[in-house]
Design a protein that fits this description.
An eight-stranded mixed β-sheet has the order 2-3-4-1-5-8-7-6. Helix content is 23%, strand content 39%. By secondary structure, it is an alpha+beta fold. The chain has a single domain, classed as 2,3-Dihydroxybiphenyl 1,2-Dioxygenase, domain 1, CATH 3.10.180.10.
Length: 137
């Protein structure tokens, strides 16, 4: 079977203060923000810092009921999820479901940067929240 995973799209880190996290990455590593966006549907504000062909995604909640707000409340700051780039998000999501894996999104949905995304529940993936990301052509 050929791998459905093309490469790592990003590693997401949940933070309380997005501007402070951005400043730290800039000061310590010389990283710069390539993309910044509020994703109202997920209740987050994100900053994408490029690392080679991938990103570090810094996330902070914009509302108290968002999944990232709940994550921060329960676990504190840190690694939130790993996102893998796929050629076809629907096909990759179907493969997870066909294997009996638990998914958060039943169908792909719009993500930031014009991407199409779907999340795989951590119970299906050894405790790691996985995001499947299809980059717009």
């Amino acid at each position: 079977m050929e791998s459905l995973l093309i490469e790592i799209d990003h590693v997401a880190i949940a933070v309380h203060d997005l501007d402070a996290a951005i400043a730290w990455y800039q000061e310590v590593f010389g990283a710069s923000v390539e993309h910044r966006e509020d994703v109202a549907s997920d209740g987050v504000s994100e900053a994408m810092l490029r690392v080679a062909d991938s990103y570090i995604q810094l996330l902070t909640p914009t509302r108290a009921d968002s999944p990232v707000a709940k994550y921060l409340e329960k676990r504190g700051e840190g690694l939130h999820h790993v996102a893998y780039r796929v050629a076809d998000c629907a096909q990759a999501l179907d493969a997870v479901k066909a294997s009996g894996g638990q998914v958060i999104d039943q169908v792909p949905r719009p993500g930031s940067r014009g991407t199409t995304v779907a999340f795989v529940h951590p119970k299906a993936s050894f405790g790691t929240l996985i995001e499947l990301v299809q980059v717009a052509s």
